[in-house]
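Write out this protein's structure.
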Amino acid sequence: MGPGHRDLIFRGWRAERGPALGPRRSFTRGIALIEVLVSLLVFAFGVLGLVGLQSTMTRAQTESKYRADAANLATEAIGRMWSDLGIVASYNGADCASIARCKEWQDKVGTSLPQGTGALDLNTGTGDVTITVRWTSPGGETHRYVTATTIARSGG
C-alpha cells in the first residue's frame, strides 16, 4: 500500500460520499433549525399562557380575600349588636357615629377593604337587620356583601 493506494481510498471516499451528503447535510441542518424555531414558538406561547393564568389566579385570590373579609366584618357587626341589645335600635342607618362600637366597626370596614363602607338597616319592630358591606376592588369593580338576621330579645 503505497501513496497511490491511500490516494485512491481518499478519492473513492470523496467520490462516493462527499458530494452525496453535502447538499443533504445543509438541508438537514435547515430542517433542524426550523424545528428548533417552532419549538421555541410553542414554548413561548406556553409561558404566555402560564403568565396569564397566574394573573387570573392572583386576581381571583384577591377578590376572594375581600369577600371573606366582608363576611367576617358583617358577622362582627352582628356580634356587636347582640352585645348591645339595650341600645340596638341606635345601630340603624349608614351613619351610626353616635354609638362608639358601631363607629369603630365602620372605621374597621373602611381600613380592611379598599374604599369599604358598611351600612346597617334595622327594622325595630321585628328586629330584622340587614348588613351591607361595599368595597371597590383595585380593578375598579364595585362589590357588596349583604347578610340578614334577626336580633330580638327573648320573649321572657
